[in-house]
């Protein structure tokens, strides 16, 4: 008696919902929800409805809304800040400032970033995660910029990385994310010159 041909094995039940296009749709929906209603009012139900998926598709990927938000913010921070290597400290700082300004002036980012930092004042988990997702990724870029400048002899070997990041990014966060004021013509060039000049003489007391 001939054996019946083996039936093809069915894919696990979760395989279809873990397709990358579904994941991308969920991430996009999270980003839009954050810009529209903010973290406090965002819910898994709202995200699922906007993404056109069931809630189960979301819970198979993330246990709650906080990990989703942190992943989206972390990806934005990493994609928005390339590591410049122009050959000069002035060029690297200007490229970094231009990239930061583009991210902060994006209409959605301008809504999302202040909201998340306000939420972090009430949510220790959010505060720690934002530190890791945003600050740490930016610090990594600043570290490369400073190290390259040190190797070229443009900065002293004991240049403080955190000070460099504060000098470069602080004014932009203040203008674009806090008071939401557009940058006047020549602002980035002036900020670049001021930052590079300050870095050559500034020191953090030990």
How would you describe what is shown here?
Helix 5 (89-105) packs across helix 9 and helix 8 (161-178) packs antiparallel against helix 9. By secondary structure, the chain is mainly α. The chain has two domains: 16-63, Homeodomain-like (Arc Repressor Mutant, subunit A); 73-201, Tetracycline Repressor, domain 2 (Orthogonal Bundle), CATH 1.10.357. It has helices spanning 20-41, 44-51, 55-59, 65-80, 89-105, 107-120, 124-151, 161-178, 187-201. Residues 11-17 have low confidence and may be disordered. It is built from nine helices and no strands.
> Approximately how much beta-strand content do the residues carry?
under 5%
The CATH superfamily of the largest domain appears as Tetracycline Repressor, domain 2
Give me the secondary-structure category.
mainly alpha
Rg value:
22 Å
User: SSE order in H/E notation?
Assistant: HHHHHHHHH
Number of strands: 0
Q: What percentage of residues falls in helices of 4 or more residues?
A: 55-70%
Q: Based on the coordinates given, report the CATH architecture of the largest domain.
A: Orthogonal Bundle
* CATH fold-level topology of the largest domain: Tetracycline Repressor, domain 2
Q: What oligomerization state is this entry in?
A: single chain
Amino-to-carboxy terminus distance? 86 Å
- Average residue-wise pLDDT: 84
CATH class value of the largest domain: Mainly Alpha
What overall form do the CA principal axes indicate?
Answer: elongated
- Please indicate the count of domains: 2
Low-pLDDT stretches: 11-17
Question: Biggest sheet, in brief?
Answer: none
């Amino acid at each position: 008696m001939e054996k019946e041909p083996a039936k093809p094995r069915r894919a696990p039940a979760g395989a279809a919902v873990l397709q990358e296009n579904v994941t991308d749709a969920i991430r996009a929906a999270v980003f839009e929800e954050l810009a529209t209603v903010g973290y406090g009012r965002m819910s898994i139900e709202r995200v699922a409805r906007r993404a056109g998926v069931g809630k189960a598709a979301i819970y198979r990927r993330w246990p709650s809304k906080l990990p989703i938000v942190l992943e989206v913010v972390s990806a934005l921070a990493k994609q928005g800040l390339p590591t410049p290597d122009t050959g000069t400290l002035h060029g690297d700082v200007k490229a970094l400032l231009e990239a930061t300004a583009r991210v902060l002036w994006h209409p959605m980012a301008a809504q999302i970033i202040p909201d998340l930092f306000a939420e972090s004042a009430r949510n220790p988990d959010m505060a720690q995660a934002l530190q890791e997702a945003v600050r740490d990724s930016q610090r990594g870029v600043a570290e490369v910029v400073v190290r390259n400048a040190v190797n070229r002899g443009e900065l002293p070997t004991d240049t403080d990385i955190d000070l460099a990041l504060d000098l470069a990014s602080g004014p932009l966060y203040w203008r674009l994310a806090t008071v939401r004021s557009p940058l006047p013509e020549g602002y980035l060039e002036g900020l670049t010159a001021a930052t590079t000049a300050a870095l050559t003489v500034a020191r953090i007391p030990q």
